[in-house]
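Tutorial, part two.
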Amino acid sequence: MEDLVRAGGKILLNISASPFYLRKRELRRDMLAAIAKNYRVPVAMVNQIGGNDSLVFDGSSLVIGLTGK
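Running the prediction step on this input gives:
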């Protein structure tokens, strides 16, 4: 991420297939907010939604501004 921001990146985009488990939404939000504040760039995460065998993907895509909100 540091290299991307130094190279002039204006937003960080995370394309993810992160399976659901309890309280994971809060964990994701807190992790991405810390990244946004640290690098002072907006962060967008798009997550897969649906199911695959025993895995469930909850979506929960989000965008966080550079202040972590």
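Residues 41 and 66 are 5 Å apart (CA to CA). In part three we will examine how such features are distributed along the chain.
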